[in-house]
Amino acid sequence: MNSIPVITIDGPTASGKGTIAQHVAEALGWHVLDSGALYRLAALACLRAQVDPADQQQVAKQASNLDVRFDSAGIWMQGQNVSNDIRQEAVGNLASRIAAQPPLREALLARQRVFRQAPGLVADGRDMGTIVFPEAPLKIFLDADAASRAQRRCKQLKEKGFSAKIDELIADMEARDARDRSRSHAPLRAASDAHTIDSSHMGVEETVKAVLDLWSKTSARHFGLS
After folding, report:
1. Which of 96, 100, 125, 173 has its CA 20 to 30 A from that of 217?
2. Residues sharing a CB contact under 8 Å with residue 194, sequence separation 6 or more, in sequence order
3. How far apart are CA 96 and CA 98, in angstroms?
4. Where is the Cytidylate kinase domain positioned along the sequence (predicted)?
5. If you average pLDDT over residues 22-34, what whole number do you get?
6. How far is CA 37 from CA 54, 106, 184, in A?
7. Residue 159 falls within a domain, yes or no?
8. Residue 12, annotated as binding a ligand
9. Which pLDDT tens digit goes with each residue over 38-91?
10. pTM more than 0.85
């Protein structure tokens, strides 16, 4: 078993898992994996290459050939900062659609596991605790109701200069949730040993503290750390 610790944070879109993962990783001095960004990058690559989303082999090929880089300045694809591009709703919707395809998930699986490096990794996504890092000592399922998530996403989009309507975002999220939870391959669900946190009425600091408190207990039990 890999001795490098991993905290997985899974949950539906806009549940805040990316923000929480970043803060938890910073607090611990660990690496972070935004697995959703990889699927969004694959979706963006497909859109730019005009790949038919139904052509699973071509979609997987785009993912396999991704020229991507993550650093403090943003997310880069083919030398271009695409941090904002991958957050567009059209890209997110396509990412949700193609994420159900087994060839794509297989193409990205090994890439995700490479992020597990000392001293530790905080990985957020939809199947981090169930498929990618099933042996992780601490698994979090971060949930929130659709209305709360839509409010957060609306705020994010407007801050980035995009227009957004709450009603449309709620409908979109409910449809995306249904799609993610019902897909046959790696559906969105909490791992059997995951701790579920409902962040509907929790702020970032409160949620981060909840995760860090759980890690403190888990690390003491599993690794003798404090």
Report:
1. 125
2. 8, 10, 129, 139, 140, 141
3. 6
4. 7-214
5. 93
6. 20, 16, 22
7. yes
8. yes
9. 999 999 999 999 999 999 999 999 999 998 887 777 899 999 999 989 988 899
10. no
- Which pLDDT does position 223 carry in this prediction? 65
Nearest to 89 by CA among 178, 185, 199, 171: 171
Place of tokens 């929480």: 20
Residues 225, 217: Cα–Cα separation, whole Å: 9
Burial 1-32 (b: 16+ CB within 10 A, else e): eeeebbbbbbbbbbbbbbbbbbbbbeebebbb
**177/81: higher pLDDT:** 81
Domain containing residue 61: CATH number: 3.40.50.300
Expressed as residue numbers, the domain containing 202 is: 6-209
For the segment 202-213, what is each residue's pLDDT rounded down to a tens digit? 999 999 999 999
Q: Is 196 annotated as a binding residue?
A: no
How far is residue 54's CA from residue 123's CA, in Å, rounded to a whole number?
A: 28
Q: Tell me if 16 is assigned to a ligand binding site.
A: yes
Rounded distance between C-alpha atoms, residue 17 and residue 12, angstroms: 8
Highest mean pLDDT of the ranges 1-10, 24-33, 158-167: 24-33
Spatial contact of 62 and 155, defined as CB atoms under 8 Å apart:
no
**How does residue 119 score in pLDDT terms, banded at 50, 70 and 90?**
very high
Residue 82 maps to a domain: yes
* In a domain? residue 72: yes
15: annotated binding-site residue?
Answer: yes
Q: Provide the number of structural domains found in the chain.
A: 1
